[in-house]
Amino acid sequence: MSVLRRFALWRLVHAIENVRCAGGTGKRRCFDARVDVRYQFCVARCRLALDDNAFGLEAYRETGHGEHFLGTAHTLANYETVFYESTIADSNSYEQWEIEGRMDAERRAHDIWKKQLADYVAPDLDAAVDEELAAFVQNKKTAAPDMWY
Predict the structure, then answer these.
(1) How many domains, in total, are found in the chain?
(2) Are 48 and 1 in contact (CB under 8 A)?
(3) Is 68 helix (H, G, I), strand (E, B) or coil?
(4) Which domain does 38 fall in, by range?
(5) Which of 25, 140, 145, 146 is most buried by a 10 A CB count?
(6) Position 24 in a domain
(7) What does the alpha-carbon distance between residue 36 and residue 113 come to, in Å, rounded to a whole number?
(8) pLDDT tens, residue by residue, 93-127
(9) H/E stretch holding 11
(10) Whether the predicted model's global pTM rises above the 0.70 cut
(11) 31-83 pLDDT per residue, tens
(12) Is residue 122 part of a domain?
């Protein structure tokens, strides 16, 4: 994919995010939605193919008018490697959502990152490599003034 096409797709993703987030939601909820959309975009962008399987014409031929594609052979064969399932989205019914405490996407995202941070185990690192990295970071910090970003 050319660089210009990639930037055009990225601008389209930002435009979709801005439309999705312009509905009066708070900045934090909008941020969670943007992270989710960007991850979906990155997953899709890395696997862009233009072969017969990618277009899935046999799924159109197999599916009748008014039917869905979930049961087609093409969907079943490609579901695990092509489709992205959000870890933040909730597909439960409204009643189940209420029973489970009316947890919205913002709360689920917050709980997910808290759990990931609590479960994190630092990889084993050779002491010499650790010292070298610490020295590199210190050199970079002293070479440039500390900025807000």
Answers:
(1) 1
(2) yes
(3) coil
(4) 1-48
(5) 25
(6) yes
(7) 13
(8) 999 999 999 999 899 999 999 999 999 998 888 99
(9) helix 3-21
(10) no
(11) 555 556 666 666 566 656 667 887 788 888 888 888 888 889 988 898 888 77
(12) no
